[in-house]
Write a structure and sequence with these properties.
This protein is α+β, with helices and mostly antiparallel strands and 546 residues long. It is built from 17 helices and 21 strands. The strands form 6 sheets. It has a 6-stranded mixed β-sheet, sandwiched between helices. The chain has a 4-stranded mixed β-sheet with strand order 1-10-9-8, with no helix packed on it. A 4-stranded antiparallel β-sheet has the order 4-5-7-6. A hairpin with a 2-residue loop joins strand 2 and strand 3. Helix 14 runs antiparallel to helix 16 and helix 16 runs antiparallel to helix 17. The N and C termini lie far apart (55 Å).
Length: 546
Amino acid sequence: MKMKKMIAGFLAAALCLTLAACNSGEILPAGPETTPQQEPASSPQSEGKDTLVVRAHKDIGDLNPHTMKSQMYAQDWVYESLVALENDTIVPVLAESWEISPDGCAYTFHLRKGVKFSDGSDFTSAVAKRNIEAVQRHAGGYSFLQSLTSITSIDTPDNLTLVLNLSQPCNSLLNDFTFRRPLTMLGEAGFPAGGDPYDNGVTAPIGTGMWVLKEYVADQYALFQRNEEYWGEKPSFQYLRAVVIPDVNTAANALKAGEIDVMVDSTQITADMYQQMSAAGFKTEMAPSTSISNLNINTAGPITGDRSVRLAMEYATDNTAISQGIFGGLQEPASAYFSSEAPYAGTAGIEPYPYDPEKASQILEDAGWVYAGGDTVRSKDGRRLELDLIYDASVTNDRDIGLILQAQYAEVGIQLNIVPQDSQVYRKNWTDGEFGVLIYSSWGGSYEPYATLAAMASGGDKFNTVQKGMSNKAELDAVMTDCLSQTDPDKLQENFNYIMKSFHDEAVYVPLTVTSTLAIYRSELTGLELIPSRSGMGVSHMAWAG
């Protein structure tokens, strides 16, 4: 009862804080000019009917298709790969079909006829080979891409046939080619004189995608023009303008003012904003993803290296309170590190820990973590049970998640300090093991489960760092590595059962919620494709109604 009152009081306070923050941006509550019965302005004030204006929370970057310096949605607008993932299914893109040899060591792709890059040049097997080999030369930067080291040679029997020869079967290969980077295709004229896009950048962002970059002002906007060479269904709009608006409240104001048409986000749009903008006459859509928001616990930390502490945190976490209090139910409580849709991992049959703060307290008590001298925080051997939770400050909702966890853990004697960090600092501290716990969403989609396992089993990778203190880490790495090339489905399921049970028994991850992508856009627009794994924000086929 005490915990329920505490959480209820916290949620009320958090709601007040959220509303105060929203009102400071003057987007909520809806003003008298925008009531539930009224429609928003019919068209953007600054653009014509031939332009769709979207909010970008960061600058698009250099649009190099192979590096990690651009926003993925923008890379997707310009570039394509051999295949894509839609609704958990591998579908043809630049490859119309493919065959896999019986031993799993050769993939033959039959490329789509008549595909041209935006400069009018042909997409051929030779161009595909050049792109793949460019990425392979930098394989050390992609611990999660097992295919880069598995591919030993590439044959191009003719312009439309591409054969990848492997040293061993690679379960992730097709999935690796569905990523928005780095295995996407740059036109010949886009390669620099030195030949390496990693060292010298690209001379121009020349791709086969739906859009071509036309105009760009760093940190302000990027204007894309419809690619008239595009082989598939072309966009309805002639232009797509991405306007950089970092603050989500400012973006909502811009939407109300008719300065932008659509905003799509999975980390900043709050439940209050989503619901109140809907009441103000804007369309809203939600798509649950296969990405899971997890609390990652440092198994090698000075305090969290104690399994009893990690186990207590599992029982002390009420992710339903997070689902309802932060996301208004828009993100459902999660039950494991991987989505239930992830092959093999999702069918491992591991039951989540129930919310039981009394059991959490007993576990800590039995392990010697006790209250000393009237302190409200437990201690053991002179060390207080105090942890830093680090999170990427650009992910708005993570602060509020931290506040709820702080209240829940305080009930069992754990002090949680909430530490926002710059994105680069956050990732460095994660890699270096300088944290107690952190919030991060699993990759989901194409990356799971194999790319994630490859990263987890790779020494020096930040995913590997979280697991360093596990009692069975060496055996776990061997099992995860075996999954990458194992062809026996029964053995694969056995491996994944072991992996998921290890995560559970060692209390490495606390599953929080199933992340969702949210969209708010003008009521006159149609055609948003906000489906799981749809990249490019899903805006390319939007059109004005009628």
